[in-house]
Amino acid sequence: MDNGASTEDESAVSKTNKTDIFVVSSNDKHLQEVCQALISFYVVHSFNDVGQLSEALAQYHPTAIIIDDKIDPIGGLRLIQGLRQTQALSLIPIVFTARKGALDQVEAAKTLPLVRTLMKPYRFSSLITAISDQVNAHIEAQWELMEPVQKAALENTLQSFNSVADLIAEGKPLPYNEIQDSCDPLVEAVQGGCYKELLKGVRGHDNYSYVHSLRVATFLTLFGDHLGIKDDDAKILASGGVLHDVGKMMIPHQVLNKAGKLNDNELIVMRSHVTETIDFLEYTEELPRGVKVIAAQHHEKLDGTGYPHGLKGKELNELARMATIIDIFSALTDRRCYKDPMSPVQAMEIMENMADGHLDRHFLTSFKELLLDAASDGDFH
Length: 381
Ligand SMILES: [Fe+2]
Ligand SMILES: [Fe+2]
Prior knowledge:
The chain contains 19 helices and 5 strands. The protein is of the alpha/beta class. The protein has 2 domains: 8-135, Response regulator (Rossmann fold); 139-375, Hypothetical protein af1432. It has a 5-stranded parallel sheet with strand order 2-1-3-4-5, with helices on both faces. Helix 2 links the parallel strand 1 (16-24) and strand 2 (43-47). Helix 12 packs antiparallel against helix 13 and helix 16 (289-297) crosses helix 17. The model is unreliable at 1-14 (pLDDT under 50). One fe (ii) ion binds next to helix 12.
């Protein structure tokens, strides 16, 4: 504001910590399960009574609050009503989780603004989607205005990505054919020349792992198209991109999103995402070998300094070499909560310096050609 004063709402926004989620329940088991499910998506703070929650809210505001119906002594609904009546807290999205026996509370909660309800037992993907729908409402609303194939490319891959959280939690195998089908619109959009619309569509979305995976899937499919890779092989590139880092769902947000350098222990945890991904994909029937190569080898380097197996030279086939280049390029040009995205030109400079020993120079040159063609009409963020 011109006079330097701020309204209550503005000061509330300035106190919002976008990476944090508060969870409130008097049921400790429920608290624990929710915290575990959201561990890679947010920094999760749990509270088992209203007093603790009030103290935390006085300090800063989370991106959303998950409120259980079981909160001693007042119950979840009364807590939600209280928050909605407090002006400074009235705009924080709430997800209300309730037992079937608390149906009257659910019906009343549904009438309040910015409240989503979930009946127990619910799937973790539903919880993630409920939070994401609220937090990313303005982003996903823009998808409605996109061409149908582009809209389907983003919606289908997001749904597939979120469904993996349930499968991991339930120890179930991945229905690969469904995942591959969900990538069809992405392949069609990229081959139809609309990949920039997809990249733009996820700009600002708060689920970083999804955004990174979508960007890798898009660039990998684009690169494949440039190299003449079509049909089923193009689908392997797209689905390999979507799935290549799903093991990151097991990595805590604090490590996944740390702004500074990771210490030795954190590095071990971070690198474990590759084996977590492979362990998960292991039980998938009919998983194409190419998808497994993308997931297993996208951190390997030609000189053997990569991980997890230190493969080198001829042990890395063309797909692995392509995947490494695309993963590094995407990571450098991704927008993160702690850094602005690097420009494609800067990213290519860094990667050209890495080429001797780490990256396949032939593929890197080919990718650079593709970028030079593409850069003539807009950026990649
Ligand atoms: Fe990775
Ligand atoms: Fe990655």
